[in-house]
Amino acid sequence: MDMLRDKERSSVAADLEQLETVRIDCYMRPDVPAVIADTITGVINRLQALCDSGIIADYEVNHWPLDHHVTDETDATRGPTRHELVAKFERWAEQHGYTLKPAFRREEISVSPLGIGCDDPYKRIRVPVIALALYEEDSEPEMETAELRGVVPYTEHPDTDDERTYTVDEWLSAVETKKSDVRTRTSRHDQATQLEGQQ
User: Fold this and answer.
1) CB atoms within 10 A of CB 153
2) 87 membership: H or E segment, kind and range
């Protein structure tokens, strides 16, 4: 069982090297029950610990944006809508052979309460309670050219028997395990160096 867990951890962190140059944008739903709020607080505390230890460059916590822009032409600093943001995430997943389903889902909703006479149904995007977007530290997430390094949760090998979805908790655990392994190797190296100097 431990070997299986180690394999899962190595897989989920395989393409996330050099995290010290990565900024993480943590997106969460604004209206969650207290029990889930505690879980989100735990995720934020773990991100803070990774930042404090230098494993990641920085992080930011945001609520998921609205589906569409609020019609305020005076707001020149507006960020992307939920549709724009998720579309960018989906492009990243497609380029790497992943999918964001089932964590992210598109649902068609009729504008008419009865669904009659509606030629263009509204497409709503269901987002996870919490998700992470990994960007290069010096890039702006609002920019189309921003370098997106990863999105969690994501699913590997979609529509196959090997399909596997990685959650935010699993990703954080993999990074924390990797951090612990690096510290252990560094400590052993330092001890060996000290012993060699005493001979």
Assistant:
1) 20
2) helix 82-95
Taking residues 68-76, report their average pLDDT.
54
Q: What pLDDT, in 10s, does the model give residues 138-156?
A: 756 555 546 899 999 999 9
> Which backbone phi and psi does 116 adopt, to 5 degrees?
-105, 135
Longest dimension (CA), the chain: 87
Beta bridge partners of 141: none
Q: Find, among 95, 86, 90, the residue nearest to 65 by Cα.
A: 86
Q: Which of 176, 198, 187, 177 shows the shortest CA–CA distance to 47?
A: 176
Amino acid symbol at 116: I
pTM: 0.77
Outline where DSSP puts E strands in the chain: 22-28, 58-63, 105-109, 122-126, 130-136, 148-152, 154-156, 164-166
In 3D space, the residue among 55, 54, 21 whose CA is nearest the CA of residue 137 turns out to be 21
| Mean pLDDT estimate for the chain | 78
Angle between helix axes 34-52 and 168-198 (nearest 10 degrees) is: 30
The number of beta carbons lying within 10 Å of the beta carbon of residue 172 is 20
For the chain, first and last CA: distance in Å?
A: 42
Q: Prior bond to 33 cis, omega within 30?
A: no
Rounded to a whole number of angstroms, the CA Rg of the chain reads 20
